[in-house]
Write a structure and sequence with these properties.
single chain; mainly alpha; 2 domains; metal ion binding
Length: about 230
């Protein structure tokens, strides 16, 4: 099959496996989502949700984050990795939102990436989930799965992976594909212990086939030993 057919097959399998894939960061508005994604860098969504459960009760709007010393905000998010740097970025971000955007999160991708602590991935998550703009955010799961399934090359940069996915996946499916790739990587095709033995995409995954060879060899050896007995 060609690249488009292969991609369609992968998308259809992912749809069957994770029909309800969605953003797992708890939030109720674009501002909370932006803060949550900023906090999620090098941290699990599960941990972020535990922290934001109380954080979003205390801080409702940008002004609230600026009405406390940075040290207090640091203590509120100290369970998050790089909490000092993230606290500083949150306050800088809130100050810019108030000064330039009337306290509202901008809808434009280029404006989002100018905010402290907001990179391309974060901006993609915000525009797609908060504003309904099709986008593919490439996090560690999306990158790993895309390379294992041959949708991107092993040495491709994150930006190159994003561009290749945007070319292969129909635009109206970008956001949903992003979520399904994350679910596939988070719950099935894990970094250290992927479920290769029950994977419906094993035939497309060289990494999985390589991992399965030792298991197949062990089974063959075991059968020979039984026959010998």
């Amino acid at each position: 099959m060609n690249a488009k057919q292969k991609t369609r097959h992968i998308l259809d399998v992912l749809a069957d496996m994770f029909p309800d894939a969605h953003c797992e960061l708890n939030h109720s508005n674009p501002f909370e989502l932006t803060i949550a994604v900023l906090l999620s860098a090098q941290c699990t969504d599960e941990t972020v949700n535990k922290v934001t459960a109380s954080l979003f009760q205390k801080y409702k709007k940008p002004e609230d984050y600026l009405n406390v010393p940075q040290e207090e905000l640091e203590q509120d998010i100290r369970r998050i990795g790089l909490f000092r740097n993230k606290a500083a970025n949150i306050q800088k971000l809130c100050r810019i939102l108030l000064e330039k955007y009337d306290g509202e999160v901008p809808r434009e991708h280029s404006m989002l990436t100018e905010l402290p602590g907001v990179g391309r991935k974060t901006a993609n998550v915000v525009v797609s989930n908060a504003f309904g703009v099709p986008a593919i955010a490439v996090d560690t799961h999306v990158e790993r799965v895309s390379k294992r399934l041959g949708l991107a090359k092993a040495d491709d940069s994150v930006l190159e992976v994003e561009k290749k996915l945007m070319k292969l996946v129909p635009q109206e499916e970008w956001t949903l594909t992003h979520h399904r790739l994350i679910f596939f990587g988070r719950y099935h095709c894990k970094a250290a212990s992927p479920k290769c033995d029950i994977c419906p995409l094993l035939d497309l995954c060289k990494e999985g086939q390589r991992r399965m060879k030792p298991a197949a060899a062990r089974k063959t050896t075991s059968k020979k030993q039984k026959i010998a007995k």
